[in-house]
Structure formats: structure tokens, C-alpha cells
Amino acid sequence: MNDAMPEPADAMPGPETVPPGDGGHEPAAAAPLEVVRELTGHPGVDAHLARLAEVDDLPADGHLEVYEDVHRGLRAELTSLDAQPAPRPYENRS
């Protein structure tokens, strides 16, 4: 004879134990975001922005390195625009 008490009908089921890697869910494959990048007309900026397309072929944990590199490059381009050009020989009239 079984002395175990039957569970009430409204009892919550216990947590299921699923072995690691056996959940039946595989991560989705990388898919291109297909973001349209418009040219700016500035070759340096356009080269850095074109590099963003590389993340389409990388897993998510590889995106950060590309984003940081592009960000550094764009900052350098902006900094170079702020730099004052050296006076040309014909402009230096004292």
C-alpha cells in the first residue's frame, strides 16, 4: 500500500531539472541587421562606418571590439577636423 498523499490538483509543479546543453533551444544564428549606411562624403568617416558591416558576421560577443574601434576612429576624425591648419607660406605675411 502506498502511504504517499496525493498532490492537490492546484499544486505547483516542481522545478524541472534540465541537463546543461540539453534544453532543446539553440542560439539563433547571426543575422545581418541590414542597416542602410549612407555615405557622408568624408572618406575617413565612410571607411569607419563601413567597418560596422563586420558585425553582421560576428557573434554578439564580438560586436563590442568593432564598435569600440569604430568609435575611436570616428573620434579621431572629428578631432582632426577641429585642428587648426598650419599657416601656408604665402599666408604668413608679417
What report would you give on this structure?
- The protein has helices spanning 43-50, 63-82.
- It is mostly helical and 94 residues long.
- It has a domain at 43-81.
- Helix 1 (43-50) packs antiparallel against helix 2 (63-82).
- The longest helix is centred in the C-terminal third of the chain and has 20 residues, at 63-82.
- The radius of gyration is 29 Å and the shape is rod-shaped.
Short structural summary:
This protein has helices at 43-50, 63-82. The protein is mostly helical.
Percent of residues in beta strands?
A: under 5%
Largest sheet: none
Helix count equals 2
**Rg (CA only):** 29 Å
Catalogue the unreliable spans: none
How do the SSEs run, as a string of H and E? Answer: HH
Q: Which word captures the global form?
A: rod-shaped
Let me know the average pLDDT.
77
- Our measurement of the CA-to-CA distance between the termini, rounded to an integer number of angstroms, reads 113 Å
* Alpha-beta classification: mainly alpha
* DSSP summary, beta strand count: 0
The portion of residues assigned to helices is 25-40%
